Amino acid sequence: MTDHQMAEIWITGAGVISALGNDFDTFAAGLRRGEDQARPITAFDASGVKGHMGYEVRDLRPSEHFSSQAIRRMDRASMLLLVAAREAMGRAGLGPKDYAPERAMIAMGNTLGGMINATEYLAHLKATGHGYASQLIDYPLYGAGARFAAEYKIWGANLAFSVACSSSNVAIGTAADAIRLGEADLAVAGGFDTIAKITVAGFNTLRNVSPERCRPFDKNRQGLVLGEGAGVLILESAIHARARGATPMAKFLGYGMSSDAYHMTAPDVTGRGPARAIEAALRNAKLEPTAIDYINAHGTGTTHNDAVESKAIRRVLGEHAHKIPVSSTKSMHGHTLGAAGAIEAVAILAGMRHGFFPPTVNHQETDPECGLDCVPNVARPGQIHVALSNNFGFGGNNCSILLGAP
């Protein structure tokens, strides 16, 4: 067996919950139909700010998934993660006898942790002078992962990454490294985040939120629209997966990270930082730029991000950048912050499985500064063989991952 075969990493399961659907199949169908699920935020009154639209998870009935005792203590973020992670384990066909607990691990990206319960705790404490510490169980970034580890008897590392919008890509890449280094046989990797008051207030203060639909790469784009959800992948060494008779949904090929070292919230307009992340991912995967046949862009719909990302893609791929689809699924499920990379990786898997390139919806006129094929408004039939997924976050945190068809 070659070194490459020994290092091969399969994605054997995937789970997702988002505004586009509460499971993989519903999510995939929504992508294919090009559904924009943005609605006025209902979790709290956001009518007083410009960016009052959001992509909320609807029809989540906690009592169908958790006991009443658990619900009293669980933050919404943990609920989202556990629903997606359970689906991923189920799709991978993983039961407690299918892995050694000490050889399994968790790696999750998120930015808010249990912020919703923590905010409610603080408000109640301020109003009454009393607080219930049980509301803070899920506040730490690692809390939701710890819940899942206990439920599935995963004894390996429970890692939490918080590097803005690149968090879940970093989590997935780090989990893959652990498997390649022989430190784990499988990893439950991904990300999750919720829509919270503090996030909506913060992004509105930065004035980068759209008052209407999200229009990535459009000449008249006005900003991002926040979303919530969770995406989870099961990564396994090919050896471990074959031994239990599993088949891959996709292969993890490589990842790359970089820092703009430029500004806390604004991207470096040269595109050098994102370009370095893409180049590092290609080196890690030992691939040439021409191997890529689809890009799931970070594509937030903000003026600077879309132009900078387009510049970075052209910088690395050259003329090839104009020959392949480059779409932003955020136009359908929103910007889910720490969950973004994971949910968008699941979008790539959906395209691979069902033979289509996801569209960029709400598109009217392509910005010449972007100028790439953004698959406007309608999904396009086609087979994804090698996909690049970009996520670039505040603080200049960049991470790109490469996925291959099984």
- What is the radius of gyration computed over CA atoms, rounded to a whole number of angstroms? 20 Å
Q: Give the CATH level 1 class.
A: Alpha Beta
The tally of helices reads 13
Low-confidence segments, ≥5 residues, pLDDT <50? 1-6
Order of helices and strands: HEHEEHHEHHEHEHEHEHEHEHHEEEE
Mean pLDDT: 96
Strand content: 15-25%
Q: Return the domain count.
A: 1
What is the CATH architecture annotation? 3-Layer(aba) Sandwich
Give the number of DSSP strands.
14
The third-level CATH topology is: Peroxisomal Thiolase, Chain A, domain 1
Q: Could you explain how this protein is built, in words?
A:
By secondary structure, the chain is α/β, with parallel strands linked by helices. It has one domain: Peroxisomal Thiolase, Chain A, domain 1. Helices cover 34% and strands 19% of the residues. The protein has 13 helices and 14 strands. Strands 5-4-6-7-1-8-14-13-9-10 form a 10-stranded mixed sheet, sandwiched between helices. The chain has a two-stranded antiparallel ribbon with strand order 2-3. A two-stranded antiparallel sheet has the order 11-12. Helix 11 links the parallel strand 9 and strand 10. Helix 4 packs parallel to helix 6 and helix 10 crosses helix 11. The chain is globular, with a radius of gyration of 20 Å. The two termini are 19 Å apart. The N terminus is likely disordered.
